[in-house]
Design brief:
Distance between the termini: 36 Å
Shape: globular
CATH superfamily of the largest domain: Galactose-binding domain-like
Helix content: under 10%
Number of helices: 1
Number of domains: 2
CATH architecture of the largest domain: Sandwich
Strand content: 35-45%
Radius of gyration: 24 Å
Number of strands: 21
Length: 298
Amino acid sequence: MRLDKNIAPSELDIGSYYDELKAHSFTIEAKHIHDFRLVFEFKGLEHDVRFALFEVSVSGKKKVVEENKSLTSIQITNENNVAKVNTPYQINVIATPSNINDIEFISKNRSIARVGANGLVIPLSVGTVVIEARNGKISDSITLTVFEQGASYETIIQEKVSFLGEVPEGFIDDFANLSFFNNSGEINFKKQNDAILTPTYSNITGSTVVVLNMRLSTSASIELSRNNEFAVQGLNSNNEVVEEVSKKGIDNLTLEDVTFEFKHTDITSYRIYFKLKYQEGYATGKNYCLNSLVIYQK
């Protein structure tokens, strides 16, 4: 097991053959570990090898960051919040009046990305993840969008727009009524097929991704809401649907970025809508609140 280029690998000879499950353990005398890599090496073999790994567990002491009461602010300074799978991404922080050693970094979704004590993020899979820098009650966070290796969604088709209290210029509401803002000012998708239409874009020449900063409302059943579907449609110049991407089970109560990736290159606009509001008897899935939007192109 090799942790990184500066730490010697731990080796364990598990023998030539076992006909039953056996547990083997490693003890790692190292600090600041944020990930592990298992490497299996078979030397001098003349026949095929079949190897089964049934379970891996890791235990250790987590670094405890003590509250620094002299801190007045924490600010994450990263501007390009886009990363690629398996490519490290560094979180940069300014803490006043202390230093980086007083900051705890937290990944809100470790299946998408993990973050070490020094703020180095290791993206693991495609999606969006909130990375938080915190000490006591003082914190800051960013939403990191992770793409596959080779993908580059750094061209912006639609700059980030906010939906707080108004429909941005060029966008069209497609709601049955006009009272669609909640108390926080976000657009509230209350009913099935409530929708927002984007402006028309003439500069799309590749694959795109629509990133919606959204959440569930705080009413109704969270369990039922996991059966809801929220979708984005890609429309061509004739307003025909050429591609639709839907998400089921969005159940975050705090604002998070949700990504919708499109492959077609003949898309000129998008329709964002509440595709399916699940209902069981008198109980319904929650409403969705849209805070902001940004569109990238590959």
